[in-house]
Task: inverse folding
């Protein structure tokens, strides 16, 4: 077993739209109900965590976790342009205080894919005033995050936002069987500018808060003879976003599987590969590759694994996945990489952007009663927190 470094973050992650329910002023809620976006099923009440966050935190703390990553919802805080809800700001402040009362350190994400509907209808991230509007929203959240929050994530997976923006501009019906579409260059530039503006706002008001953002690591692996193709493919989809974090306090590493690249581009996983409920290749070693690549590209910015997990109905495979993934984290620490924490995705079975079918959660949620039931994987992972050790196989 590898001891946790001092102060190591040990927890689980969630996102507001995926667990809170009834996020009616958001762009995603509109997509779920407009009849045009081909969303398989709407989020509706989700896991009702807007009302049940205390129970969720009680469970996590009782299981042995010391950290909880959750997001605040821009569409709730600013439901109409220029109108900031004091009630919603107070709600999220109560969550921060509630986490501290339970011995949980909150890592707060300010943007996790969803935006207010008015922002999207005004042009979204490519509107002329997008950076200004985001910075104004971030400034409004200062009463939530200035006290009792050690880490803040400005924007979750900006590379995926740029990829989805590029697909939308081209009218792509869906993602290819392997790899990602080209990201939109304008959206990439704006997101980097928005991140830097957000960092400036937070540091001006709360200089002690450590600020960063998270990047979706696809773990691009070059097949023989495809090294240059892989580097060219990876750069706009990942590396430019990692490089943008070089002056940050930390960067979030998020990985689930790998993408193999051949001379002609992405190559599907082998036919005999084990697949998860998201149809991704079962590949728990991904997080080790992601950590090493992020450390190399960022120049050694402190890293936190802010998402890592598996969508499966077989909880024993979830334990297997985490055991192998955590061996990679332990190896990274042993190799001297600056890894500051590990947060599993996700704390709860939740709404996975169009469907409830992919179950990533450590805790199951009854869709009718909202009863929470920790899975054996939650007990196993939480026990490592009590012991403060990472497994070595």
Result:
């Amino acid at each position: 077993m590898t001891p946790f470094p001092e102060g190591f973050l040990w927890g689980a992650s969630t996102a507001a739209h995926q667990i809170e329910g009834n996020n009616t002023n958001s762009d995603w809620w509109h997509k779920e109900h407009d009849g045009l976006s081909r969303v398989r099923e709407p989020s509706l009440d989700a896991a009702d965590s807007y009302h049940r966050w205390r129970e969720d935190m009680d469970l996590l703390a009782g299981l042995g976790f010391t950290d909880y990553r959750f997001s605040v919802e821009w569409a709730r805080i600013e439901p109409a342009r220029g109108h900031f809800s004091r009630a919603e700001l107070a709600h999220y402040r109560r969550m921060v205080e509630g986490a501290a009362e339970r011995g949980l350190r909150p890592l707060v994400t300010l943007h996790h894919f969803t935006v207010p509907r008015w922002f999207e209808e005004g042009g979204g991230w490519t509107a002329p005033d997008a950076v200004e509007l985001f910075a104004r929203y971030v400034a409004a959240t200062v009463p939530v995050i200035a006290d009792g929050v050690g880490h803040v994530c400005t924007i979750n997976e900006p590379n995926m936002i740029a990829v989805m923006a590029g697909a939308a501009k081209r009218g792509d019906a869906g993602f290819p069987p392997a790899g990602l579409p080209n990201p939109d260059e304008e959206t990439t530039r704006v997101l980097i500018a928005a991140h830097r503006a957000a960092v400036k706002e937070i540091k001006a008001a709360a200089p002690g808060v450590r600020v960063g953002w998270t990047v979706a690591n696809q773990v691009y692996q070059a097949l023989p003879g495809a090294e240059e193709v892989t580097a060219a493919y990876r750069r706009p989809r990942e590396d430019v976003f990692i490089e943008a974090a070089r002056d940050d306090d930390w960067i979030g590493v998020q990985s689930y599987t790998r993408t193999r690249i051949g001379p002609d581009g992405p190559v599907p996983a082998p036919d005999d590969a084990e697949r998860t409920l998201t149809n991704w290749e079962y590949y728990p070693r991904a997080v080790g590759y992601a950590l090493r690549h992020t450390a190399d590209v960022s120049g050694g910015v402190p890293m936190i694994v802010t998402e890592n997990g598996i969508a499966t109905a077989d909880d024993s495979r979830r334990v297997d996945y985490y055991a192998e993934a955590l061996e990679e984290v332990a190896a990274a620490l042993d190799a001297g990489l600056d890894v500051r924490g590990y947060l599993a995705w996700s704390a709860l079975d939740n709404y996975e952007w169009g469907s409830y079918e992919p179950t990533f959660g450590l805790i199951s949620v009854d869709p009718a009663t909202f009863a929470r039931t920790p899975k054996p994987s939650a007990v196993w992972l939480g026990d490592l927190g009590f012991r403060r050790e990472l497994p070595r196989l």
In short: The radius of gyration is 20 Å.
